[in-house]
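Sequence dictates fold. Below is an illustrative record:

_____
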Amino acid sequence: MLASDDDGRWTTLRPNFFLRMSPAAVKLSVDRATTVTKSSCVLIDEYTSHSTVHGMRYISNANLFEKIFWITMLTVCGLSACYIGNELWLKFRSKPTQLAVKDTHVPLYEFPFPSITICPAIKVKKTKGLEYFSRNINLTDFMLTTLPTCNELFGRCKWHGEIISCCEAFSLQRTEEGFCYSFNSLTSEAGKHCPLSEVLENEGIEEEDDYMYPGCQLRRNTAVGTVTGLEVFLYKTNTSESLGLGQRDIDGARIMIHASYEFPNAGDGIWLRSEQGRRLNIMISPVITVTSSRVKDLSVSTRGCVFPDERELYIYHVYTQSSCLIQCRMDFILFACGCHMYYFIAPNDGKPMCGIPDLHCINHYTRHIRMLTPPKGTPGFEDRLIRDSLDCSQCIPTCYETTHEIEMESSPNQRTPVWTLFSYLDVAYGNLGSKKYQRDITFAWTDLLGEYIDQRIVHFVAYM
């Protein structure tokens, strides 16, 4: 009778099985088992005798002490290799990407001339504003109606030393400071229709195709030095239209330099005063950051950056960190005050545009939208500051980015040939080439495997 459990079943089966075998069959079975055991030992002995792994051949033809020594050495080497492999893996996990200089002299013709945004100090003309208050208030329409026109702001413009039409070269630009005018910008009213593919082609991220969207080709330049780029002559500020202390700057205009696919960053810019003979020279040196396609295989949280086509924003169809922060601030105003800010395109969600009655609420939360929430546990921040800050942690850097190093010089009493004009702006390249950085993965799987094998070889050779 066989036992019900496995051990019992086999305990009962084996004796019964061997009792039914003849003595010759039992002897044959035992001989076969002995032969298999001897064959295994022979194979192991042959492997250790002819193995290319250093130390293995000493195990077969050695006394007991030598065998113990070499087995110990091989074990230590194997564990060391595993430890080093684990350290390499941890290094890969902790810093999966690295940023390195790819080129220090990228030709200027490979990327567009930067966007130049000019924001007049007087964004609301007093006389127009007072006239508008007699009618129903729509804040967006109010700001557009009271904004100085292109012909009132610009006197003369030059590109490559040739006179061009200012009002054709500059387009209305939405910013968090209100409405301004931009040159060579794809986020302006003239360029916002350009699709993502056209933006990426202009920046050299994608190869250009045969079709060119009207108005989407950006200006480029290869010349260096003063009067070789963009020159702008501004009319004198009409101080009678000023709101006085209600303005950020008392006169003139604020100049902002940015990439064509980005909105101007509120709070940045260089003030160009409105006085006869005032000259502002800005020399630009572009710095480009690109990312290897291999990085796209990593998750967004691992690589720490977003490709332009991976996220959509309702204010613009190309993702950048600065645009994401603008949208984050707008979403907070919508949550806190129940309305959309007037200066950017808002989603069609049925929520109203902010009006005069909402300005008190917006002003109350000004401090909240100025400071971003630092990572949890960051020292040096008071609890009150963190409580009143804005959490935009979802706005991480862009994998492709163009920034501009700026050198400027402002000089008075530099009389221009056009004596009726006051402020003079000259923006040009400062160097013949630009710097390019490339973000790539720290180790590919093949690199990691090769590094691991190299380390094992080093350790084995060390004991030869």
